[in-house]
Amino acid sequence: MVPLVQKTCYQQLLHFLVALAVGCMSGDALLHLLPHALTSRAAGNSHDHITPVLRAMVTFIAIVLFFLLEALLHYMNSKSTQNQKVDLGAQSDPKEQTHLNENEDSEAVTKLDTERVPINQQHSHHHGKHHHKDAAGSVAWMVIMGDGLHNLTDGLAIGAAFSGDTVAGFATALAVLCHELPHELGDFAVLLQTGMRIHKAVAYNIFSSVLSFFGMAIGVWIGKHESASLWIYAFTAGTFLYISLVDLIPEMNTNSEKSQGFLDVILQLAGIITGASLMLIIALYEDDLSYLFG
């Protein structure tokens, strides 16, 4: 999809994919994962109401953990940006700062003869560039760390789902795919904006994606025990609800504010309905699909 970035239809396609991810992830959480987690099949007691409540509590804990994770990443990113501003301010020449504050004509400032600039100002300029590169690098690492942690939890969910039921694994993998496609494209664009080369950005994306295989291996190992897999279903439902309702829907609202016409709203609505319909069909005909997949 990278060659489509320069096309006029790219933004509309991205809006549809984000909405599709909202429908698939929230639909998978509400129509498939939570009903499975709350049935208490492993408890062996139909009158047990404590286990479903505790599993619902795990869903709530997953939402809180993802909130704390994103808050921590935002704090580290803002701290890095503040340090960059402090370093740039400390390296600038006070005489130059006074001259810029007293001069309101920006064109006169830009036409200063570079040969008359003192050596310490030239060193400050190059040092400022160095700190800008460091800040851009820190932003890139924040993106890679956040993406890697998301991929780890996605792999955990897919592994646990496939170990319990093929249809459940297929539904979870489809929901992750619909979310990760626009998410990875967005991360790819952020890495390019930090000044990273295309091949390096692709390599870092692949590196962070490898963590999903570790999560999948852990999920398959845990999923051998049915009771454990049900707890993972509850945790995955919380992560899917948080990502779809907290991360993706605000992004959709921002895209709607920037859009020029009603077409984007129709595309977003179609994406949500399509994703939710897919999850509903999988949930209703799960037994038939399990027989079909053998």
From TrEMBL:
Gene Ontology BP terms: intracellular monoatomic cation homeostasis; zinc ion import across plasma membrane
GO cellular component, one term: plasma membrane
Pfam family of the protein (one): Zip
Classification via InterPro entries: ZIP, ZIP_Transporter
Subcellular location: Membrane
Keyword Disulfide bond: no
Bilayer-crossing regions: 12-34, 54-75, 202-222, 228-249, 261-285
Keywords, alphabetical: Membrane, Transmembrane, Transmembrane helix
Organism superkingdom: Eukaryota
Membrane-protein topology: Multi-pass membrane protein
Molecular function as annotated in GO: monoatomic cation:bicarbonate symporter activity; zinc ion transmembrane transporter activity
Similarity annotation: Belongs to the ZIP transporter (TC 2.A.5) family.
PANTHER family: SOLUTE CARRIER FAMILY 39 (PTHR12191), ZINC TRANSPORTER FOI (PTHR12191:SF37)
Record's protein name: Zinc transporter ZIP10
Annotated source species: Cryptotermes secundus
